C-alpha cells in the first residue's frame, strides 16, 4: 500500500478512477469480448478491429471519469462500445439533400383529413336516416365489402333485388348530399 492509500479511509478506495488500473491486464481480458461484440454488429474484419481499437482509445482518454462505485469496468467499457457502434451506423446513413424530397408524394394535409372526417360524418348522418333494411344492405355492401350475391344469401333477397335497392339508395344519398351542399333540402 502506498502512503496515500494508508491515509484514506477504506470506503473511498473503490472511488479511485481507472487511471490507477492495470491497463495491460484489462485490455488482455476485455479485448476479445469487445472485438466479438463488434464482429456481431459490423462483421469480422478491419471495421470490427478499428471499432475495438477506438473503444479502448476512448476508454483511455476518459479513464479519469470512470468510477468503480457506479459500475464494473466491463460495463463501462461496453457502454463505450455500444455508443461507438451507434455512432458508426449513424455516420454510415445516407444523407440526401432536402431538394431530393420534392418528388416524394406527401400524405394528406390536416385540412384534407378534416374534410374527410367532415364528409364521413355527413355520410353517417345521411345513412342513419335510411330505413333499417336499406342501412343493412349498405353496411353489407360497403362496410363488409360483400358481393351482391353474398348479400342476397345473407338477406334472403334475390341478387337482382339487392342490386336494384342498392342502386336506388346510392342515387338517393347522392341527391341528398348534393342538395345539402347547395343549402337546400
E-strand count: 0
Order of helices and strands: HHHHHHHH
From the helix content, strand content and strand pairing, which structural class follows? mainly alpha
Strand content: under 5%
Mean pLDDT: 82
The percentage helix is 55-70%
Poorly predicted runs are 1-18
- How would you describe the shape? elongated
Radius of gyration: 36 Å
Q: Number of DSSP helices?
A: 8
Largest sheet: none
End-to-end CA span: 99 Å
Summarize the structure.
This protein has 185 residues and is mainly α. It is 67% helix and 0% strand.
Set out the fold topology.
Elements: H1 3-7, H2 23-42, H3 46-61, H4 73-92, H5 110-128, H6 132-143, H7 148-155, H8 159-182
Helix pairs in contact: 2-3, 2-4, 3-4, 6-8, 7-8
Describe this structure in words.
With 185 residues, this protein is an all-alpha fold. 67% of the residues lie in helices and 0% in strands. The relative contact order is 0.06.
Keywords:
185 residues, mainly alpha, 8 helices
Amino acid at each position: 500500500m502506498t502512503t496515500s492509500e494508508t491515509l484514506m479511509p477504506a470506503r473511498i478506495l473503490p472511488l479511485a478512477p481507472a487511471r490507477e488500473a492495470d491497463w495491460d491486464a484489462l485490455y488482455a481480458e476485455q479485448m476479445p469480448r469487445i472485438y466479438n461484440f463488434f464482429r456481431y454488429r459490423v462483421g469480422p474484419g478491419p471495421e470490427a478491429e478499428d471499432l475495438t481499437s477506438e473503444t479502448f482509445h476512448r476508454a483511455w482518454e476518459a479513464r479519469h471519469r470512470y468510477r468503480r462505485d457506479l459500475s464494473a469496468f466491463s460495463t463501462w467499457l461496453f457502454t463505450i462500445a455500444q455508443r461507438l457502434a451507434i455512432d458508426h451506423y449513424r455516420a454510415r446513413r445516407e444523407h440526401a439533400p432536402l431538394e431530393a424530397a420534392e418528388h416524394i408524394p406527401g400524405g394528406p394535409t390536416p385540412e384534407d383529413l378534416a374534410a374527410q372526417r367532415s364528409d364521413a360524418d355527413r355520410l353517417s348522418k345521411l345513412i342513419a336516416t335510411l330505413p333499417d333494411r336499406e342501412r343493412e344492405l349498405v353496411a353489407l355492401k360497403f362496410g363488409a365489402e360483400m358481393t351482391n350475391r353474398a348479400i342476397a344469401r345473407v338477406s334472403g333477397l334475390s341478387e337482382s333485388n339487392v342490386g336494384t335497392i342498392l342502386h336506388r339508395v346510392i342515387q338517393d344519398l347522392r341527391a341528398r348530399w348534393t342538395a345539402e351542399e347547395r343549402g337546400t333540402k
